[in-house]
Design a protein that fits this description.
By secondary structure, the chain is of the alpha+beta class. It has 16 helices and 13 strands. The chain has two domains: about 200 residues, Cytochrome Bc1 Complex, Chain A, domain 1 (2-Layer Sandwich); about 200 residues, Metalloenzyme, LuxS/M16 peptidase-like (Cytochrome Bc1 Complex, Chain A, domain 1), CATH 3.30.830.
């Protein structure tokens, strides 16, 4: 059954997805705002805020927030992305009332203490430092900077020590009111949930939410460029990005299939050619990253520095090869993989709750899972070839390379092989 969507008088939307026979419930409160809505001075504030609300909310201390949930057999988590922030609870079915109370406090009634804020700035500072010390984290950050330079999408979600250092409890409280405004909030539950009870709890906890005024995110523009960092590592880390389409584009599922065929699994073209046939890399895969209005087609690889240039050239040729119609059997396999991933994900209550919230934020409604499956089945070899040609016609690429100096030339080699 397609989950039902209700709207509270103040604009908060509520999604109920009951699953008969389940003994657990997943509750997500998702704000359709994140790091993409920050200016440079407030870079990282959405993530810092996500940390801060757990230091105390309502009449519960930081310890009590987690203890009351775990005492009922549940767990609690949160995540900040570019376009949304999510607070999540998994619990036994009797824990819905408590879960709603805790999430309501976190989102709307956090206690902002100066001492906690200064300590949490140190914690986030360590998180920033850890990302800088982790090659396969840093290389993706560098690629994002290269693709969306001087734009919110090009800044790290964690922010910088300078930008998070500027936050105060007052400015962070104001940011919370703007970020978690009622028209941006979706309360979504899946599993052992009763619709009437969920609506009662949503009204109790979120019916009084107010605030707003945050402007829409600025349009993103993909920019060609490269970020290369020489570092003494055992392997070179490469991320190769091309401009693609957003989640609302008619070619969205074609993009997902392109990534699957290019490097989505062990039968993919890059895995078979770069790893199995040539032994150029142990790890190589392709992926698509999509936002509301734009996206990227990406390839990540880890290889010996001496193989980086050849690997980049092989990747370029495999991408070019997708301008020709793919064989029916290859496309059928990619469709099966994509649909399998989609339906398997729906066997998790939390994934269902998060997915439904995301659909409401993007489309104003939830989608029947058979509809995306039908769209996947409808993609043709000609459509994939046309999308690849459309991507390459921009003659744009963003490349990040982190590793031994001998690997850094792969950035130029990739662009030359791809466009010349």
């Amino acid at each position: 059954m397609t989950p039902k969507v209700h709207t509270l008088p103040n604009g908060v939307r509520v999604v109920c997805d009951p699953l008969p026979g389940w003994q657990t419930v997943a509750l997500s409160v998702v704000a359709g705002r994140g790091a993409r809505f920050e200016d440079k001075a407030r870079s990282g504030w959405s993530h810092l805020l996500e940390h801060m609300v757990f230091k105390g909310a309502g009449d519960r201390s930081a310890r009590e927030i987690v203890e009351v949930i775990e005492a009922e057999g549940g767990n609690i988590n949160a995540a900040t992305g570019y376009e949304r922030t999510s607070f999540q609870i998994r619990a036994l079915k009797a824990g819905l009332d408590l879960g709603a109370s805790v999430l309501g406090d976190l989102v709307l009634r956090p206690v902002m203490d100066e001492g906690d804020l200064e300590r949490e700035k140190q914690v986030v500072g360590q998180e920033i430092a850890e990302a800088a010390d982790t090659p396969d984290d840093l290389v993706f950050e560098l690629a994002q900077q290269a693709a969306f330079s001087s734009q919110p999408l090009g800044r790290p979600i964690l922010g910088t020590p300078k930008s998070i250092g500027a936050a105060t409890t007052r400015t962070l409280s104001d940011w919370r009111a703007a970020l978690y405004a009622p028209e941006t909030l979706v309360v979504s539950a899946a599993g052992a949930v009763d619709e009437d009870e969920l609506l009662r709890l949503a009204e109790r906890e979120f019916g009084g939410a107010s605030g707003g005024g945050l402007p829409a995110a600025e349009a993103a523009t993909f920019i060609s460029g490269s970020k290369t960092v020489a570092r003494k590592l055992e392997q070179a880390n490469l991320v190769l990005l091309l401009p693609a389409v957003g989640v609302q584009d008619p070619d969205y599922f074609a993009l997902r299939l392109l990534a699957e065929i290019l490097g989505g699994g062990m039968a993919s073209r890059l895995f078979q050619e770069a790893r199995e046939a040539r032994g150029l890399a142990y790890a190589i895969d392709a992926y698509s990253e999509t936002y509301a209005d734009t996206g990227v087609l990406g390839v990540f690889a880890g290889c010996e520095a001496k193989n980086a240039v050849e690997l980049a050239q092989v990747t370029a040729r495999e991408i070019q090869g997708l301008t020709r119609p793919v064989p029916d059997a290859e496309l059928a396999r990619a469709k099966a993989q994509l649909k399998g991933s989609m339906f398997m994900g729906r066997e998790s209550a939390l994934a269902r709750a998060e997915q439904a919230a995301g659909q409401v934020l993007l489309f104003g409604k939830t989608l029947d899972p058979e509809d995306p499956a039908a769209e996947i089945d409808a993609v043709t070899p000609a459509q994939l070839a046309a999308l690849t040609s459309r991507i390459l016609a921009s003659r744009q690429a963003a490349v990040a390379i982190l590793g031994p100096r001998a690997a850094l030339g792969a950035a130029e080699s990739f662009e030359q092989a791809l466009f010349n």
